[in-house]
């Protein structure tokens, strides 16, 4: 049943708007609609690869933009184009530049062409990689495609406001917050609320009581699957009603429901919801119902395939721009001719932006093509036109819409065609141009996996560890405790969160006493929710804070791998240096016992977190050195501490909070001449024990601790060792083909060390299954001293069987 729109007098937020303001919203709404229509056409014309658009969501996004203030943050999804333009953080030319994948951040500031269209972000960093002031700008964290993947980060963006408001030590950081008044606005589609990350994030927000305002755009479908398959009661607000707080001052959410075509009520609801968030730090769920999607989900197909005719007819009748037009006429705010002219002008604006964006994208490629044709035609002249080379060049010349890959592909094939011919000026010019194109393409498409600022890990000054002559021997956990204490005293932006981190000082006591010393805002317990623990850290790091987020055991990292991989690890890359989140993730692993407390899933981690650093220290002093380095850097990292090392004795450094360890530099733990043993973490003790036993039978083993896997041996120390020994074993606790295979590839391939070997390289790993419980389970499932001894002995026996007779 159709419900009438509110009159202006019934929606107080409208009274603050002039006629010009209202018609400006109408204009922006129609510009956005025409941008969606034009974007779809560009894909079908072959000028873009794929398109996903925000048509049907224009009015709620306009209302949200009017509640969004300087200093606020957005964590949204790929249909928020109207909001971004209304907030002044996107132009229509930039919108089309992203659709075309323009690789220049001047053209596409959000992603420099690295993400498909609809992935929005503001540039939080200046050209030197430093944070720009955030309180004077409207901010958007960088979008990701995985459904509900924006939710964990949204928790962190809102949590930062709580810290900035409640921790007086943070009040001087006025570039990042004004008394915590900033609201974190989130957006999500109704179907994506079925994801576990959505539920986990809302529960966390309710517990934390943070200024998070999440809007659900509810168009009843998730691609082709309707709400009856998606959501209990077919309503996320009904399902989540238990979050509703019982009264002012009580914990919980405020929940609002509003129709997506009701312009006056949308304005009023967003103003009230944002005020509750901003002033009281109460989270809000705003369910925007009866939203339409005129073009269907994306350019992948038509919604006519799965929506019944009655639904399609209803959507046409309830299109939000159609409804706003009816309301404007009914209220006498504008006449038919005035609205028609606005609609016509909106179409012209989009056409002009589209044309300008295509020219800005395509003209440089055409120019590069012409430069290539000059040298290629010279190459043809040098080698004759009656051959395949001339046809190759002609193909590039007649290509109507070349891309850079076409140019590089042609240059490569052209040089291949003249291989073996005498060198000519044309050949040399072609080679130079190819090298230039590849260098430019590397910047366009491969740069900024890591920070390029002065605060990058590689730029942190190395400070050697120092010990007093009478340095006390303490438990390893006490070294970490002293390290964290010194850093917390040095920088008020540092805080730690995680399960059991606060009151008991984590399960292994490295934070013991720190909550009492620094307060609950600095050392904080969380619920069992690894995904949003990471998200809490990502969002806070985006806002200038220095979080340490703890995942209690390495096995539990599986719960958090999605935000680590899809969000944190690729943040610098997908924004081409426009955003950073220097989050440190702390966990512990190796040498545990039992199927679910024994994993060393390094292979999974290595594949998932490129863009983060991976530190695998063998003891707590090494871990402290990495923490000191990372807390002075602007890059994210995962540090895996050895679970069986917290109570082993270590000397306490005098500069425990100042000494730093460089990343990517292995350490030789024992020198040897016959074979090189490469490992890390808890395996170092096993390998050293094996090396000692090997020495008893005349085998001199060199033991190398890689210390970090990402980056890996940047100075090629392992290759230097192989020049001496000629033999190598890679050992760890991961599955076969895991991190040992990775280390072997790094050494043999990247370091070109295969030619240094006198024997086949070998790997010693855990079994393919997870270890069973108990000491015997550990011994027979993971590498042990005897396994390594026997492997090395057999390798040496192959070389000198008389010297090393068979054992078994």
Explain the overall architecture.
By secondary structure, this protein is α/β, with parallel strands linked by helices. The chain has 4 domains: 19-334, Thiamin diphosphate (ThDP)-binding fold, Pyr/PP domains (Rossmann fold, 3-Layer(aba) Sandwich); 363-444; 457-651, Rossmann fold (3-Layer(aba) Sandwich); 668-799, Rossmann fold, CATH 3.40.50. The chain contains 27 helices and 22 strands. Helix 2 (19-44) runs parallel beside helix 12 (336-383). The chain starts with 11 loop residues before the first helix and ends in a 9-residue tail after the last helix. E1 component of the 2-oxoglutarate dehydrogenase (OGDH) complex which catalyzes the decarboxylation of 2-oxoglutarate, the first step in the conversion of 2-oxoglutarate to succinyl-CoA and CO(2).
Cα distance spanning the termini? 85 Å
> Globular, elongated, flat, extended or rod-shaped: what is the shape?
globular
Can you name the CATH architecture of the largest domain?
Answer: 3-Layer(aba) Sandwich
Biggest β-sheet: strands ordered side by side in the sheet: 11-10-12-13-15-14-20
Function: E1 component of the 2-oxoglutarate dehydrogenase (OGDH) complex which catalyzes the decarboxylation of 2-oxoglutarate, the first step in the conversion of 2-oxoglutarate to succinyl-CoA and CO(2).
InterPro entries: DH_E1 (IPR001017), THDP-binding (IPR029061), Transketo_C/PFOR_II (IPR009014), Transketolase-like_Pyr-bd (IPR005475), Transketolase_C (IPR033248)
Pfam family, one: Transket_pyr
GO molecular function: oxidoreductase activity, acting on the aldehyde or oxo group of donors, disulfide as acceptor
């Amino acid at each position: 049943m159709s419900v009438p729109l509110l009159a202006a007098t019934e929606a107080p937020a409208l009274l603050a708007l002039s006629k010009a303001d209202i018609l400006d919203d109408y204009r922006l709404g129609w510009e956005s609609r025409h941008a969606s229509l034009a974007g779809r056409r560009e894909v079908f014309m072959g000028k873009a690869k794929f398109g996903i658009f925000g048509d049907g969501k224009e009015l709620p996004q306009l209302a949200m933009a009017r509640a969004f203030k300087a200093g606020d943050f957005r964590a949204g999804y790929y249909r928020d184009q109207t909001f971004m333009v209304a907030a002044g953080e996107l132009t229509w030319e930039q919108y089309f530049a992203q659709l075309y994948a323009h690789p220049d951040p001047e053209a596409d500031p959000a992603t420099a062409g690295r993400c498909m269209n609809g992935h929005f972000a503001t540039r939080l960093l200046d050209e030197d990689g430093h944070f720009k002031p955030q309180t004077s700008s409207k901010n958007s964290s960088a979008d990701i495609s995985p459904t509900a993947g924006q939710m964990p980060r949204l928790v962190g963006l809102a949590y930062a406001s709580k810290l900035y408001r409640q921790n007086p030590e943070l009040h001087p950081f006025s570039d990042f917050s004004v008394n915590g008044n900033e609201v974190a606005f989130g957006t999500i589609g109704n179907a994506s609320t079925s994801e576990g990350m959505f539920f986990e994030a809302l529960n966390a927000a309710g517990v934390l009581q943070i200024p998070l305002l999440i809007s659900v755009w509810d168009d009843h479908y998730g691609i082709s699957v309707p709400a009856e398959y998606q959501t209990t009661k077919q309503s996320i607000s009904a399902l989540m009603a238990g979050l509703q707080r019982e009264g002012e001052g009580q914990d919980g959410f405020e929940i609002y429901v509003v129709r997506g075509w009701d312009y006056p009520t949308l304005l009023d609801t967003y103003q009230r919801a944002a005020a509750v968030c901003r002033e009281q730090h109460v989270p809000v769920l705003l369910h925007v119902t009866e939203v339409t999607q005129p073009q269907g989900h994306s350019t992948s197909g038509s919604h006519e395939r799965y929506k019944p005719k009655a639904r399609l007819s209803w959507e046409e009748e309830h299109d939000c721009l159609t409804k706003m037009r009816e309301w404007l006429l009914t209220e006498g705010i504008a006449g038919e001719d005035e609205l028609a002219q606005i609609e016509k002008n909106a179409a012209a604006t989009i056409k002009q932006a589209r044309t300008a964006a295509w020219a800005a994208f395509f003209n440089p490629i055409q120019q590069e093509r012409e430069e290539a044709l000059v040298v290629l035609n010279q190459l043809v002249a040098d080698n004759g036109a009656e051959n395949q080379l001339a046809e190759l060049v002609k193909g590039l010349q007649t290509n109507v819409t070349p891309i850079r890959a076409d140019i590089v592909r042609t240059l490569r094939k052209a040089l291949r065609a003249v291989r073996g011919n005498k060198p000519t000026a044309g050949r040399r010019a072609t080679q130079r141009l190819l090298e230039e194109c590849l260098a430019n393409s590397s910047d366009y498409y491969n740069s900024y996996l890591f920070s390029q600022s002065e605060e990058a890990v590689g730029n942190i000054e190395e400070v050697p560890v120092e010990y007093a002559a009478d340095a006390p021997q303490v438990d390893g956990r006490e070294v970490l405790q002293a390290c964290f204490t010194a850093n917390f005293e040095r920088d008020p932006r540092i805080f730690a969160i995680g399960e059991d981190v606060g009151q008991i000082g984590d399960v292994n006591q490295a934070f013991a006493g720190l909550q009492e010393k620094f307060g609950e805002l600095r050392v904080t317990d969380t619920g069992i929710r690894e995904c949003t623990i990471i998200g809490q850290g990502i969002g806070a790091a985006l806002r200038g804070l220095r979080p340490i987020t703890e995942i209690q055991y390495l096995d539990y990292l599986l719960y958090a791998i999605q935000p680590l991989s899809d969000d944190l690890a690729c943040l610098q890359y997908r924004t081409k240096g426009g955003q950073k989140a220097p989050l440190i993730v702390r966990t512990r692993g190796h040498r545990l016992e039992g199927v679910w407390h024994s994993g060393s899933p390094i292979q999974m981690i290595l594949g998932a977190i490129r863009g983060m650093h991976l530190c695998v220290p063998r003891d707590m002093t090494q871990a402290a050195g990495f923490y000191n380095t990372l807390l002075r850097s602007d890059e994210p990292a995962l540090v895996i501490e050895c679970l069986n090392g917290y109570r082993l004795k270590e000397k306490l450094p005098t500069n425990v909070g100042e000494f730093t360890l460089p990343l990517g530099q292995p350490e030789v733990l024992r020198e040897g001449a016959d074979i090189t043993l490469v490992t890390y973490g808890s395996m170092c003790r096993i390998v050293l024990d094996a090396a000692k036993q090997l020495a008893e039978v005349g085998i001199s083993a060199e033991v190398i601790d890689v210390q970090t896997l990402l980056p890996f041996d940047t100075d090629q120390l392992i290759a230097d060792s192989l020049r001496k020994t000629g033999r190598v074993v890679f050992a760890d606790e991961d599955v076969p083909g895991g991190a040992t295979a990775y280390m072997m590839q790094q050494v043999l391939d990247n370091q070109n060390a295969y030619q240094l070997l006198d024997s086949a390289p070998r790997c010693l790993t855990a079994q393919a299954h997870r270890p069973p419980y108990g000491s015997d389970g550990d011994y027979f499932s993971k590498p042990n001293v005897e396994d390594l001894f026997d492997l090395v002995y057999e390798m040496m026996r192959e070389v000198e069987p008389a010297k090393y007779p068979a054992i078994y």
